[in-house]
Design goal:
The protein is an alpha/beta fold and about 400 residues long. Helix content is about 30%, strand content about 20%. Strands 13-12-9-14-16-15-17 form a 7-stranded mixed sheet, sandwiched between helices. A 6-stranded parallel sheet has the order 2-5-1-6-7-8, sandwiched between helices. The chain starts with 12 loop residues before the first strand and ends with a helix.
Length: about 400
C-alpha cells in the first residue's frame, strides 16, 4: 500500500535526519511536546538498524524466542505489536496502516527515502557533505548549532576566517556556549531555511506551515450521490423536484459553489442532460453509497471529496459553509454529528484522501456502511446548527412535507 501511495507512514510526514549524536531525537521530542500540547495527534517512527523493544525473560520475549511471528501485549491504555519482518516483506504497507490514525508523522532517520526531510547538522558537517553530494533529496530545511547570523553569506564548506585552525581549535571562541559557536558549513541551498536548533518555536511553526500548505494545496472535489431507483419513493430521488428544479441539478449547483470540480456518482452509465459532463460510474459495484465514494477517492487520489447525497434536499449553502469552516484535513473526514444520536452522518461529509484506506479495509471485511467506517476512525465531528439540515426523503409523504417547508 505505502509504496504505491507516495508515502511511507502517512500522507503528512516529515523526516528529521542527521548523523549519530547530532541532536535529532532531542529536537523531535521537543517538537512532539509542542504539537501534543496544541491537541495534535502525532505519530513518531524511527528507523533503527538493530533494536530490541522487549525485556529479556518476559513472557512476550519468551514467546517470540519460541518462534511466535506476531506478539501482541495489551493493557487498558495501550498495546504493543511486534511482527517479524519475514512474515510480511511489504512492511512499510503495514507501518502505514498503523500510522494513518495520526494527524501527521515525524520520522527519525529515513535519510535515503523520498519523504520531505529536515537535516540536523553535526559538528563535522558529515550530513551536509552527503546532502551536497546528492545522496539525500527532498530537503526542506536545515537545523544546526550556530545562530543564523554566523551562517549568512557563507557557501558550503566556506572556512573564511578559520584558516590554519584544526577542528578542535577554539581560539577566539572562548565564552561561547556549544550552541553559539561558528559552524564550518551552511544549509545546502539559499532557498532552504536554516534554524538554530534551540529555536524550537521557529522550527515548530515551519513544520506546521509545511503540513498546512500540503493540505491547502489539496484539491476539493464535489460528489453528488444519485443512488438508484427507490422502491419506497417509486422513482429516483435525484429526479424529485424542489422549487421547480430536480434535486440532482440543485445539489450539483450547490457543490459547484465550493468545489474545484463536481462529479455525479451513478451506479451505471446514465442518460443525463448534456450539461452534466463529469460522470463517475461506480467501479465498486453493489455496495450502495460507499461504491461511489470509493470510486471518487481512487479516481482522484490526490483530492479531498465533499460528498452530498441526493436525498438531503434541506442542505443549503449555510450547511456546507458550516461543515467546511470546521474541516480538519488532518483527520480521515469531517462530518456532521447526527441530530438524533452521537454518530457521524456520512452522506454530507468531507472525505480526505487517506480515508480510502479504512473504507477499503472495512469493505474487505464485509462492511459497506460508510458510517461504520467513520465511527471507527479519527473523524472531526461538527454539530448541526439546524437539526433538520440532514433530514432525508424516503417516502412520498416526506417528499410532500419537505416541499411545503421549502415553499414556506
Amino acid at each position: 500500500m505505502a509504496r504505491n501511495s507516495g508515502f511511507l507512514y502517512n500522507p503528512l510526514e516529515l523526516g528529521i535526519c542527521g548523523c549519530h549524536n547530532s541532536g535529532k531525537t532531542t529536537l523531535i521530542t521537543r517538537l512532539i511536546e509542542k504539537f501534543a500540547a496544541a491537541g495534535k495527534r502525532v505519530g513518531y517512527a524511527k528507523h533503527a538498524p538493530h533494536f530490541e523493544m522487549d525485556a529479556k525473560g518476559k513472557d512476550t520475549w519468551r514467546a517470540r524466542e519460541a518462534g511466535a511471528k506476531l506478539v501482541l501485549a495489551t493493557d487498558d491504555e495501550r498495546y504493543a505489536l511486534q511482527i517479524e519482518n519475514g512474515i510480511n516483506p511489504d512492511w512499510p504497507g503495514l507501518a502505514s496502516k498503523l500510522m494513518l490514525d495520526a494527524d501527521f508523522v515525524l520520522a527519525e532517520g529515513r535519510k535515503n527515502t523520498e519523504i520531505p526531510k529536515i537535516i540536523v547538522l553535526d559538528e563535522d558537517d558529515e550530513i551536509l557533505a552527503r546532502t551536497k553530494a546528492g545522496k539525500f533529496t527532498q530537503v526542506v530545511a536545515c537545523v544546526g548549532p550556530s545562530a543564523r547570523t554566523e551562517m549568512e553569506g557563507r557557501t558550503p564548506c566556506d572556512r573564511s576566517g578559520l584558516e590554519g585552525r584544526t577542528p578542535c581549535d577554539r581560539s577566539g571562541l572562548e565564552g561561547r556556549t556549544p550552541c553559539d559557536r561558528g559552524h564550518t558549513g551552511v544549509w545546502p541551498s539559499k532557498g532552504i531555511p536554516y534554524f538554530q536548533r534551540d529555536d524550537v518555536d521557529g522550527i515548530h511553526d515551519f513544520v506546521l506551515k509545511c503540513f498546512e500548505e500540503r493540505c491547502s494545496n489539496r484539491p476539493l472535489c464535489g460528489l453528488v450521490l444519485t443512488g438508484g431507483e427507490s422502491r419506497r419513493m417509486g422513482k429516483n430521488k435525484s429526479e424529485l423536484e424542489y422549487g421547480g428544479k430536480p434535486q440532482l441539478e440543485r445539489a450539483t449547483a450547490l457543490l459547484d459553489n465550493f468545489c474545484q470540480d463536481v462529479f455525479i456518482s451513478v451506479s451505471h452509465t446514465p442518460t443525463l442532460p448534456h450539461s452534466h459532463t463529469h460522470i463517475l460510474p461506480d467501479s465498486f459495484i453493489g455496495h450502495g453509497p460507499v461504491s461511489g465514494i470509493l470510486t471518487a477517492l481512487t479516481a482522484r487520489p490526490e483530492a479531498a471529496w465533499l460528498v452530498l447525497a441526493c436525498d438531503l434536499p434541506l442542505v443549503s449553502e449555510a450547511t456546507l459553509e458550516t461543515l467546511l469552516a470546521a474541516r480538519n484535513p488532518y483527520k480521515f473526514a469531517t462530518a456532521f454529528r447526527s441530530a438524533r444520536a452521537d454518530f457521524p452522518e456520512p452522506l454530507c461529509t468531507v472525505y480526505e484522501p487517506k480515508s480510502v484506506f479504512p473504507l477499503l479495509h472495512f469493505l474487505a471485511l464485509g462492511y459497506d456502511s460508510p458510517r461504520n467506517t467513520l465511527i471507527s476512525t479519527e473523524v472531526a465531528l461538527v454539530d448541526q446548527t439546524d437539526p433538520t439540515w440532514l433530514d432525508n426523503v424516503n417516502h412520498p409523504e416526506e417528499y410532500e412535507e419537505i416541499r411545503r417547508q421549502l415553499q414556506s
